[in-house]
Design a protein that fits this description.
Layout (H helix, E strand, L loop, with lengths): L3 H17 L30 H12 L25 H6 L1 H8 L14 H12 L6
Helix pairs in contact: 2-5, 4-5
The structure holds heme C.
Length: 134
């Protein structure tokens, strides 16, 4: 039979191991990348991302080849007609959907290839901060 000291030790190890699984956050670390929606995604205080230095070029490089008002039906490779991300207003209107397809660890868009994980995190951060213009 176990002594009570052994039981206490076993319990302490068990509790230690289970709390060790919990996500540890510290203010120095980048904020939540496992959010399940754009609303949950945090905006870091020191974010410098804007439409000018990030969002516009990102959309142009990775999305506007299919999602642009200038592309008629038949030249959009199947991208739905109303999903255009040419302007900041467009992107703000579609922000939650864009995050779901392409932000953080979501890699459904573009359909093949696309931005690096780091760029997807930057997209998520910029959107979570309200997609500032400059
Ligand atoms: C090669 C063409 C192509 C590129 C590039 C592309 N998409 Fe798409 N997109 C599609 C197609 C096709 C669909 C419709 C099928 C689907 O939803 O998978 C779509 C659908 C979407 C939708 C859903 C639209 C709706 O009406 O519900 C969003 C949001 C979206 N894409 C975002 C993006 C973002 C953000 C990028 C850039 C990071 C991007 N896409 C790049 C082809 C593309």
């Amino acid at each position: 039979m176990r002594s009570s000291a052994e039981l206490v030790l076993a319990l302490a190890v068990f509790v230690g191991a289970s709390t060790g699984c919990a996500q540890e956050t510290s203010s120095d670390e980048p904020v939540v990348e496992d959010a399940t929606s754009l609303e949950e995604r945090a905006c870091p205080d020191d974010s410098y991302l804007s439409w000018e230095n990030f969002g516009g070029p990102f959309m142009l490089t990775w999305c506007n080849g299919c999602h642009s008002e200038s592309l008629p039906d038949g030249e959009r490779q199947g991208a739905p007609l109303l999903s255009n991300f040419d302007t900041l207003d467009d992107v703000r209107a579609w922000a939650a959907d864009i995050w779901e397809e392409s932000g953080d660890h979501n890699a459904s868009m573009p359909p093949v290839g696309g931005p690096s994980e780091e760029e997807r995190e930057m997209l998520a951060e910029w959107l979570a901060c309200g997609a500032p213009a400059d």
